[in-house]
Amino acid sequence: MQNFVLHTPTKILFGKNQIAGLAQQIPAKAHILITYGGGSVKKNGVLDQVYSALAGRNVQEFSGIEPNPTYETLMKAVELVRAENIDFLLAVGGGSVVDGTKFIAAAAHYTADRDPWHILKTVGREVTGAIPLGCVLTLPATGSESNIGAVITRKNSGDKQHFHSSYVQPKFAVLDPTVTYSLPPRQIANGVVDAFVHTIEQYLTYPVDAKVQDRFAEGLLLTLLEDGPRALAEPENYAVRANVMWSATLALNGLIGAGVPQDWATHMLGHELTAMHGLDHAQTLAIVLPALLVEKKTQKRAKLLQYAERVWGLRDGSEDSRIDAAIAATRAFFETMGVPTRLSDYQLDGSSIPALLDKLHQHGMTALGEHQDITLEVSQRIYQAAR
Amino acid sequence: MQNFVLHTPTKILFGKNQIAGLAQQIPAKAHILITYGGGSVKKNGVLDQVYSALAGRNVQEFSGIEPNPTYETLMKAVELVRAENIDFLLAVGGGSVVDGTKFIAAAAHYTADRDPWHILKTVGREVTGAIPLGCVLTLPATGSESNIGAVITRKNSGDKQHFHSSYVQPKFAVLDPTVTYSLPPRQIANGVVDAFVHTIEQYLTYPVDAKVQDRFAEGLLLTLLEDGPRALAEPENYAVRANVMWSATLALNGLIGAGVPQDWATHMLGHELTAMHGLDHAQTLAIVLPALLVEKKTQKRAKLLQYAERVWGLRDGSEDSRIDAAIAATRAFFETMGVPTRLSDYQLDGSSIPALLDKLHQHGMTALGEHQDITLEVSQRIYQAAR
Question: Can you provide one Gene Ontology molecular function annotated for this UniProt record (chains A, B) (predicted)?
Answer without folding.
Answer: metal ion binding
